[in-house]
Amino acid sequence: MTRRKAAVIGGGAAGMMAAIFAARKGDEVTVFEKNAKIGRKLYITGKGRCNLTNNCDSKTVIDNTPTNGRFLYSALNRFSPADTMRFFEENGLPLKTERGHRVFPVSDKAADVVDTLLHTAKREGVRLVFQPAEDILIKDGAVVGIQTAKGAVPFDKVIIACGGCSYPLTGSTGDGYRFARKAGHTIVPLKPSLVPLETVETIGSEMVQLLLKNVSLTVTDTLKGNRKVYTDFGELQFMRYGAAGAVILSASAHMKEMSEGRYKLLTDLKPALSEEKLEARLLREISSRTAETAGSMLRSLLPAGMLKMFMRMAGISAEKRCSEITRTERRQILTLLKCFPLTVKGFRPIEEAIVTSGGVSVKEIDPRTMASKLVKGLYFAGEVIDVDAYTGGFNLQCAFSTGVLAGEA
User: Fold this and answer.
1) Contact, 397 vs 178, CB < 8 A?
2) Which of 73, 39, 48 is nearest to 59 (CA)?
3) pLDDT band at 193, cuts 50/70/90?
4) What pLDDT is stored for residue 103 in this prediction?
5) Strands 127-129 and 28-32
């Protein structure tokens, strides 16, 4: 029996998983990767540690995938987070689960995740070609091959798994959208997700790169009566343009209709203290330091880098003596400590996003196989599809699950 020939465009998380499982089903598989090595984006995920999935059930993954999560039902039913963990551990990569059920390699090295995918693919007989696919060849409504710089190469099946538009230096330059559009597919407009935010307020130079740990963030929508749209706890980092850090990246995924001034970031700088306890502490600090300045007193409650902007927003001179602080001014300090506000101006460029929101319309993809409904023999996997999730390993799980389904189809 003649083996089917399958091409996978993209050697990332989805592409490598698709290649491995296509080879296991008996296909003769070739991966076309434009970079000099596979998994370039995997190397930088999880700050170089690679949060490769979340130790949860499939329903939780869907619940944490706000864009077309239900489309993943079949993919997750076939290849769940437990299956992902089992796959890597059976192929020699020990894993561990940390806060928020995030799963990492025990080594804390993203390179080990890439190596596991590479070695497993080679063991399954997958051929790796480090050159770009320039086009997909279609005849009479079916895939017949791909075009490379060296000429046309015939294939029975092509899986597009070349990512989105985020982090273009890793090779995610939107090629998959071009291929899909030429094949007749609809591309849902692209926008950044899991991305830093620009703010209306100017961040002082002394605050740039300042990292706040263990703060509580609430996002409100001013166009909907200041309704809360997201809350989180973790790290926030000030940047010259506004704000970044884990809580900001997660919050950005909830800002579906962005416009300047619509969203407010309200940060509780002292979430471990109730307002009453914080007020009592503030009173003690003021009464015991009457001869000191307000700026000096607040160093016991704030990072030094925040003082200048904090005092400016409070409308209090940093040189004012504690003995001169009025009750109104004390309440203003307390309010800012529990609710430090920033106004969102907009997203940072899509090139800085962890994930691209938008992509190939799920209405034109069979969720049971990841096959194109328009072109026979064409499949999609990973970020190129209009599916995106929150942080915590969910996006990589989506990539692995859709890759497995496309590879086996």
Assistant:
1) no
2) 73
3) confident
4) 97
5) parallel
- List, in order, residues 6 or more apart from 175 with CB less than 8 Å away: 9, 34, 132, 133, 162
Report which residue type is found at 127: R
**CA 322/CA 331 separation, integer angstroms:** 14
Domains and CATH numbers, the chain: 5-190+356-408 (3.50.50.60), 197-271+341-347 (no CATH), 282-340 (1.10.8)
Of the listed ranges 158-172, 274-288, 389-403, the least confidently predicted one is 158-172
What is residue 61's three-state secondary structure?
helix
H or E element that contains 137: strand 135-139
- The answer on pLDDT for 169 being more than 90 is no
Q: Which two tokens stand for residue 218?
A: 């609430």
Quote the CA–CA distance of 275 and 118 in Å, as a whole number: 53
pTM as predicted: 0.85
Query: What are the residue ranges of helices labelled H in 253-384?
Result: 275-288, 294-298, 307-314, 327-338
Which residues does 400 contact at the CB level (< 8 Å), separation at least 6? 13, 14, 17, 52, 53, 79, 84, 87
Residue 204 confidence (pLDDT): 82
Please provide the size of the chain in residues. Answer: 409
Q: Answer whether 101's CB lies under 8 Å from 53's CB.
A: no
Q: Judge residue 275's burial from the number of C-beta atoms within 10 Å of its C-beta, 0-12 exposed, 13-18 middle, 19 or more buried.
A: middle
- Is residue 135 over pLDDT 80? yes
- Of the candidates 195, 217, 242, 221, which has an alpha carbon nearest to the alpha carbon of residue 350? 195
Please check whether residue 222 is in contact with residue 206, taking contact to mean a CB–CB distance below 8 angstroms. Answer: no
Confidence tier at 172 by pLDDT (50, 70, 90): low
